[in-house]
Amino acid sequence: MLLAGGCSKPGIYDLGLIIDGSGSVGNSGFVQTKLFLLRLIDQFHISFQTTHFGIIVYSDRANLICRFSDQNYYGSKMLLKWTILGLEFPDGDTRTDRALRMAGRNLYSNIGGDRDGVPNVLVVITDGITAHGSEPYKDVLKPLQVQSTREGIVKCHGKSRNISAGVLLREVLACYRQKCQQTSLYRKR
Fold first, then answer.
1. Whole domain around residue 181: which residue ranges?
2. How much is the average pLDDT of 30-50?
């Protein structure tokens, strides 16, 4: 799943990562995701003036790891990588809805450090459908101001789990450039 919106200088993003740590992913899949994210982070210049990362890990519950406003993480790419390496596999049900709601409240908001004039990109890495009893995506995506849908943007996990960081980056940025206007992209698996 990928969300993106807005236009700005190339290489400057508020880039959110939502990571599925549910039982269906498994510990091995979770480790593969972390290694993928290390390669992805290497593709960006991270600093006060360029890209900021926000991270949420979820299963039954969503856990905010860092916000865009956390200065330690945009001041040190190495600290961001160590944080990702240190993530523990949470196990449990797949509640993507809770992670998306948290992203709207705690990343893409004033409290989360969302910057005006900087494109918002949200990458959700999951192996499947959210659990029974989850809130509908249309409801949890409203705070993220998703306005339009488009299928087939990026598959980050599941059958395409071996996608390279460079390929993902190219696809994310190509989609962003193609839709560089005040609309947003959304892909639901």
1. 2-186
2. 91
